[in-house]
Amino acid sequence: MTKTVAIIGAGASGLCGARHMVAAGFDVTLYEIGSQIGGMWVYRNDNGRSSAYKTLHINTAKNLTAFEDFPFDDTVPPFPNHRDMAHYLNAYADHHDLRRRVRFHARVTDLRPAADYAAASPKWQIETADGDAATYDTVIVATGHLTKPMEAEELRAFGDGYRHSHDYKDPADFAGKRICVVGVGNSALDIASDLCTTAESCVLVARSTPLIIPKLMFGRPFWDVVRPLYAPWVPGWLRTRIVQALVWIVHGRMSALGFGPHQKKIHAASNANIVNHIRYRRVIVKQGIEDVAEGRLTFSDGTAQDFDHVIAATGYQIETDFLKPEVLTHDGYRMDLYMRIVPPDWRGLYFLGFFNSDTALNWIAQDQARWIAAHETGAAALPSTDDMHAEIAARRNWVETTFKNTPRHGIEVEHIPYFRDLRRTLEAARKRAAV
Questions:
Q1: What pLDDT band is residue 109 in, cutting at 50, 70 and 90?
Q2: What is this structure's pTM?
Q3: Contact 365/16 with Cβ under 8 angstroms?
């Protein structure tokens, strides 16, 4: 009998997973909470989960973001916007005949092992908000991790003008206002760049010291310039030094922009405009907040200022509210998954796209999907539970010793070593399956 596979989420990762599981010969059903394909790239998506804003563009160039079997149309600019991305994902779904497999308006409320679950022959039951229930051999969770805001509770004392960046949609709503943006990730830099030209004032609070990658260099996407450095034979330390030197050539020292000194490694951000806005003093950088009162912030340099709005671009928590604790527990920032994919105590359950990376999600998700498909066809076999837990512990230790201890780094991967690990573990898994 054909193995049945359920995929929760019809965004980029879910569609990629469906494409590869269908190619492997499985009967695939996608559960989508809203009415549209495209997930976070659908601006004002009726599923309520998209963090897209009106001016959003991708951070990685289109030749890196495209799935390898489906390039962008030549008319799409080097850095597609959210409309381009939503169109692309819909075209990808239609190209692979995936749309007919999507159940729209299907909110999954419960995912649990079926009554006849066994590790050798797993079965999983899915229930939806409308009371429907179905059983599958395999379930892939592809709901993403950029939906539940990580609220800055200490900022709530500011009052009605506080909001998380998840709720930011249109810069026109803030014209003529006094704005403070908290954070230095991609969204924070985008939002500050959006607002500073029409705001009365705009402050950017950097709780960490960023590495701001330019979008373009020598008239080309920055990735195209540095791509040769990502060959497997280039030592990681040399690649890092050269990339940092190129960033310095374009942007200068981060400390000259008002940011503090670098400490541990951090997740890089990419922005085309923020450095110029800081240099022109349209955006003023502060290094921390000491006190929050209604309508007023006191900064770590002793200055204080009144604002109309504070926008907390403080990241997101992982949310899997349809999973019971006995299936998977996590602290909202870290998930104990073998290869960022497999809960080691269960079979037939996978997580796709639950990582932060230094490259495009799509590029990594398609290798994760192939990895999953190989295991589900029987061509590959997982290691022992103890070995999987040992790998999880080693990966967590690498994150904790390499990166600054902040929640956003809890699911961090660097694509070169991670691709190498996917190949290594898949090769070992194929050997186990052949025994």
A1: very high
A2: 0.94
A3: yes
